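in:
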């Protein structure tokens, strides 16, 4: 069997840009043996030829057993752990030893900080050149500060 050579005026399947699906099209222009431009027989739209995508074959899904799965820690548990850590380090008696927060202040990990809006916090990380992560009662905040 020989396959018929396609020429202008023939019908081909193409992905229509207006219909957004594969429909029947009439070949309008060709370059050599290659279809370049087509007109949709459903909506009448003219566009470049887009070859109909081959049908996808279903791939079997791989499932993991409960024994293989690693349980994720919910955000609520992480927030609870932060709150417990904050209460241990920044209790009610820590107010006097806390350093007043300033954007141009120098900090290091485990420094106690008193912020005018967020309250008492503990520096958990210093990221050069000018960022500090501070754990407050409401959660972690990334603020400006210099490493010490």
């Amino acid at each position: 069997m020989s396959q018929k050579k396609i020429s202008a005026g023939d019908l081909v399947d193409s992905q229509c840009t207006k219909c957004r699906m594969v429909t029947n099209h009439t070949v309008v222009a060709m370059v050599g043996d290659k279809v370049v431009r087509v007109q949709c027989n459903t909506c009448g739209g003219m566009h470049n030829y887009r070859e109909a995508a081959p049908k996808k074959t279903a791939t079997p899904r791989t499932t993991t057993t409960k024994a293989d799965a690693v349980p994720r820690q919910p955000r609520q548990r992480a927030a609870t752990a932060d709150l417990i850590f904050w209460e241990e380090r920044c209790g009610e008696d820590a107010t006097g030893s806390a350093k007043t927060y300033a954007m141009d202040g120098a900090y290091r990990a485990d420094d106690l900080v008193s912020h005018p809006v967020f309250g008492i916090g503990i520096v958990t990380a210093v990221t050069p050149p000018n960022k500090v992560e501070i754990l407050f009662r409401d959660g972690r905040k990334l603020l400006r500060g210099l490493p010490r």
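note: The chain has two domains: 11-48, 75-147.
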